[in-house]
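Internal tracking record. Fields below are filled automatically when a chain is submitted to the structure queue. Please do not edit lines marked as system-generated. If the sequence contains nonstandard residues, flag them in the REMARKS field before resubmitting.
Queue: standard
Priority: normal
Entity type: single polypeptide chain
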Amino acid sequence: MYNVDSNRAEEFIDQEEILSTLKYAEENKNNRTLIDSILERAKNRKGISHREAAVLLECDLEDELQKMYELAKEIKQNFYGNRIVMFAPLYLSNYCINGCVYCPYHLKNKHIARKKLSQEDIRREVIALQDMGHKRLALEAGEDPINNPIEYILESINTIYSIQHKNGAIRRVNVNIAATTVEDYRKLKEAGIGTYILFQETYHKDNYEKLHPTGPKHNYAYHTEAMDRAMEAGIDDVGLGVLYGLNNYRYDFAGILMHAEHLEAAFGVGPHTISVPRIRPAEDIDPTEFTNSISDEIFEKIVAILRIAVPYTGIIVSTRESQKSREKVLKIGVSQISGGSKTSVGGYAVPEPEEEKSNQFDVEDTRSLDEIVNWLLTMGYIPSFCTACYREGRTGDRFMALVKSGQIANCCQPNALMTLKEYLEDYASPDTQLQGETLIRQELEHITNEKVKTIAKEHLVKIAEGKRDFRF
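SYSTEM-GENERATED OUTPUT FOLLOWS
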């Protein structure tokens, strides 16, 4: 029985509710009156239900689709402006005891090189990332209680935060590790993590169990209820995601919105981010074997309707996607992207030899961070390295309250410009620096609060003089 408030996975992600939702969407995909009423209600910027979103996803009326894309653009601009948050993944270890059939880290794969970074390795990788200009990392590790215990993750976080190199510093460490206990989530909270990220992969229980035939990840309920335990432990910024291509995309689209609704109902705050990865080629993995892959057009549609359905939630697209694909979805909803990424264990400090290949998936967008920053500037976006909200305690419901009131813009815009200025001074190529300085001058005039504008200008001067880490 569907119950959004329940703490049981099979009740807040109820299969009958999803099937009923998909049937309702199919029956109403050409219902212009209903579709227009949903879009009209969505204009209040408060989101729509999973059932309403499913109707929009099923709709194939060209004029209605254009309305959806235009509304998604408006909502994106309203909440995020032209700011794009930058980050990079850091893989600590690919030792894993699970049998996930779509991941090359699965236990039975004897072809992939197994690696685990020592603390000195991590130091070298972090310095390389700092020298690129990164301030925000997403830690990744396989599930292996012997090789990757929680103590190793905590020590690694502490190492990362401790490294100061020239003007470099990692100011926010997000963590993407396997579902764990409330006690372990408390330890992660105490270690000062930013967002806890865990992809569901698919919300279809039977398919989930087939895709995860062995290992602790096979336990659908334990995995799906992980965010409840994380929030119970005090982690109020969590990130959801499904891997499109593993299951029917309509089903998982409804599932992830139901998960978001559950977190909002049970804890008063929905997910901080939603990721939208698509399955990619990798060692021992052939994506053509998965028959649920989605086209670029469906991918863009998913992003646009997510932006309409959960307007306050960040949407992440990684270097799994091509430059062309990322350019399209940036316009209609994406607010965070990775850049200069390696999906191998290490590889930032020293390129990984082919015979030691350990990457989790092939990267489609292989450009350097500076090339991506330059590209964003060319399109009029502000590449943001800001971590201010996390460090000022504006997380969870406090962050959402500011976003919903519109007051967050008084922090985000100047913080984005100041962190961009840091990047330009310390890491940018000459052309990127020229483009960035021009954009900063233009964007300063868009700050409507005169006091904030004045302080931001003063801080920008101080950054040019060599001082760092100003924030509102």
